[in-house]
Amino acid sequence: LCFLDEKTPLLFQWFERNPARFGKNDIPIINTEKNPYLNNIIKAATIEKERLIGIFVDGDFFPGQKDAFSKLEYDYENIKVIYRNDIDFSMYDKKLSEIYMENISKQESMPEEKRDCHLLQLLKKELSDIQEGNDSLIKSYLLDKGHGWFDFYRNMAMLKAGQLFLEADKVGCYDLSTNSGCIYLDADMIITEKLGGIYIPDGIAVHVERIDGRASMENGIIAVDRNNHPALLAGLEIMHTKFDADPYSDGVCNGIRKHFNYSLNEDYNSFCDFIEFKHDNIIM
């Protein structure tokens, strides 16, 4: 087990595809009675005053909305708003053309009777459709603006972990080391009391959802004890290999399975018990 101390930063995320649905001078994070996401973040910052609380954001925000983010940082000194375009993720990138060409070569190397001709045609079309200037896995998720956009850049942020705060060059973050860990929480997670120190297996743990006795790994919580955690790097390797990789199922879940050498012959519920991030002071 690896230990995350009581100062390990917390990270929330809000990627907004339509900032115009908020007031031009308001914080562009949903905050309704049904979905009090901004209040949940502020509550976390109030309870966990000794921790840095990051909000990883992206969107075409109005100047007044950015000012509102700055005021939020002023009102709560441990809150740090981290803009996606202020962070360099290029070290995690790969050309889309390389991914497609590798998959095309894999198909073409097969005996003709085993080749998936429909898939091969699809791969060649996708390769030819890549526009100049957009030959980048990272950029492809900026064009998405859906769940993939949110999920992919969450993975990128958690690869950076505590280094994300340093790279954002925010006041009050300089005590972090470049390999500091981080705990990501979805904005619907509610902290009720201080979390204190936390032990996690081999430096990584995630949220686990259980429905009708079946467990599944989820990315609503991701905790790592260092940047570039091998499980997330394993997920990134899958993203670099599969032309149809998914940031959640491949980038997180399959990366974790690969890191821990999980076999389909093993009991999946037991594996979820092992990797689960559990805490009595978080309403999940």
Brief description of this entry?
The chain has 284 residues and is an alpha/beta fold.
Protein architecture, described:
The protein is an alpha/beta fold. It has two domains: 2-54 and 85-93 and 145-279, Spore Coat Polysaccharide Biosynthesis Protein SpsA, Chain A (Alpha-Beta Complex); 96-129, no CATH class. Helix content is 38%, strand content 18%. It is built from ten helices and ten strands. The chain has helices at 37-47, 63-75, 96-108, 117-129, 137-144, 147-160, 163-167, 230-241, 249-259, 268-275, and strands at residues 2-4, 10-15, 53-58, 79-83, 182-185, 190-191, 198-200, 204-211, 214-224, 282-283. Strands 4-3-2-5-9-8 form a six-stranded mixed sheet, with helices on both faces. β8 and β9 (214-224) form a beta hairpin. α8 packs across α9. The longest helix is centred in the middle third of the chain and has 14 residues, at 147-160. The two termini are 23 Å apart. The model has no long low-confidence stretch (mean pLDDT 95). It is found in: Host cell; Secreted.
> What count of helical segments does DSSP give?
10
CATH fold field value of the largest domain: Spore Coat Polysaccharide Biosynthesis Protein SpsA, Chain A
Beta content: 15-25%
What gross morphology would you assign?
Answer: globular
Q: What is the quaternary state of this protein?
A: single chain
Name the CATH architecture of the largest domain: Alpha-Beta Complex
Rg, rounded, reads 20 Å
Mean pLDDT: 95
**What's the total count of β strands?**
10
Poorly predicted sequence stretches spanning 5 or more consecutive residues: none
Major sheet: 6 strands, mixed
CATH class of the largest domain: Alpha Beta
As laid out across the biggest beta sheet, the strand order is 4-3-2-5-9-8
* Proportion of helical residues: 25-40%
SSE succession: EEHEHEHHHHHEEEEEHHHE
